């Protein structure tokens, strides 16, 4: 699932840490977990020290919202309502099928996951702007920038989800 919890590292963790006002080292450790639990408690969210879609929406970290099989909560329920499927708040096979069909009809990458690009097309979050969609992706420098190895880049690399930067720091 697209969640952040203790032991993970990467750019999404840095974004979360900045929002929480803790050191943004990109490593989700005990300090981040404690700050997140305090935020969840203060804001009436499920207090588990895990940042998922509902926490991201509440924190206005829309670029981190990624719904997929196994996701649960109010954000999933809103997606299900927009897709016209049973709105039970649990992203299962039926929701994935509906997401795939929606993506195909709307000229999106068909992967069965609802990230910012898909959610922007549904219209369920006015906050899912083209800028948010762009911030949810990472890629190489634009044309003319330096590419790995120091040579000039002639074309940007394809964008990929910011979630691709996540790794575990356990055992490292």
From TrEMBL:
Give the highest taxon in the source lineage: Bacteria
Where in this protein does the record put region Disordered?
Answer: 138-160
Q: Where is the Peptidoglycan binding-like domain?
A: 22-58, 79-121
Q: Report biased composition (Low complexity) as residue ranges.
A: 139-159
Protein name according to UniProt:
Peptidoglycan-binding protein
Specify the species. Rhodoplanes tepidamans
